[in-house]
Amino acid sequence: MSNPADASAYSKDNPFPAHLTESRMLNKPGSAKETRHFALSLAGSGLHYKAGDSLGVFATNRPEDVAEIIQRLGATGDELVSPQGLKLSAPLPFKEVLFSKVALAGPTKKMIETLAAKATAAEEKAKLTGLLAPDSKDLLMAFLDDREFIDLLSEFPSAKLTPQEFVDHQRKLMPRLYSIASSPRVFPVEIHLTVAVVRYTSNGRHRSGVCSTFLADRAQVGSTSTPVFVSHSHFGPPADGAKDCIMVGPGTGIAPFRAFLQDRVSIGATGRNWVFFGDQKHATDFLYEEEWLAYLAKGQLTRLDTAFSRDQLAKVYVQDRMRENAAELWQWLQGGGYFFVCGDARRMAKDVDLALHDIIAAQGNMTPAAAVDYVKQLKKDKRYQRDVY
Length: 389
Known about the structure:
By secondary structure, the protein is of the alpha/beta class. It folds into three domains: about 5-60 and about 175-230, Translation factors (Elongation Factor Tu (Ef-tu), domain 3), CATH 2.40.30.10; about 65-165, CATH 1.20.990.10; about 245-389, Nucleotide-binding domain of ferredoxin-NADP reductase (FNR) module (Rossmann fold), CATH 3.40.50. About 35% of the residues lie in helices and about 20% in strands. The protein contains 15 helices and 15 strands. The protein has helices at about 65-70, 95-100, 110-120, 120-130, 135-145, 150-155, 165, 210-220, 255-265, 280-285, 290-295, 320-325, 325-335, 350-365, 370-380; strands at about 15-25, 35-40, 55, 80, 90-95, 175-180, 190-195, 200, 205-210, 225-230, 245-250, 275-280, 305-310, 340-345, 385-389. Strands 6-3-10-1-2-7 form a six-stranded antiparallel beta sheet, covered by helices on one side. α1 runs parallel beside α6 and α3 (about 110-120) packs antiparallel against α4 (about 120-130). The protein starts with 15 loop residues before the first strand and ends with a strand.
């Protein structure tokens, strides 16, 4: 029998034009964050998903950024170009390539080399040459980290590039993957996302995350087609509904666990559910608070432990709550429970992993080496799963 997930004509290479049906703010007024809940309709796509999967979204760049690049290059936008980094069947108008095919951020050393070769103003040439000096590697890295292509065009106006030369320095605009925050058992033709909208300032300019602001600002509810595809994952709730689940998901890392809970409740899973959630402030940043409290009230969520880092002088994080509940967490693991983590890979996931090793060593009276082996076995048995980014 063929897998229904393979039945759709839509894929990463042929994304489905989904309609955005909902966009609402999850943070309350006064929050330092902008986290939004999005719902997209898959009606008519033939696409299937499961709790734990991700949704790939193809975004477009901000029209004002595209217009500024065209203007600074003295171009019209109609010039036909074929970027080196893209395998296009035929050249496309410069404006179209900038809008939907290439990334406007992440210039590399190669761009600095090209500008240095083309700059005619002595001051600009000296600065560019200085950045390329053998002992300036760290300086160059910091310089590029703080800039997008548009910055370089405004800082070195004497270096004249053709549209083709410009796009040859750009990378392909890649789709962004978001953990799905809904279960197909509850929402068979709809997908929910929990997205942190990225906006910040660097080098005196306002920046924005391409895909998060595409969803928040440029995709209109009900009218805009949003190209999407389902990315299937090995991450997901246990097939055996009798197994206990410990889910650690601070911030937008909570997304798949909303899907897990919906999934487990809908099949009448008898295993217990324990959620660890963290963010900045309880009053403004408790994502999906009403839903978690409703699950708790019905006994469908056994435990909910929260860590709001800015609500007290000493910052408290999810790993601190894990350590406070070490004995019970160990009991759940010893009873065959599953342990899931979703969210920031660089800091949070590392801190949670360290806490897990420490808890296992202390509660199980093990050496650090034995705790490492225990965790390895959990991973082997698919009882320790991570969806980190």
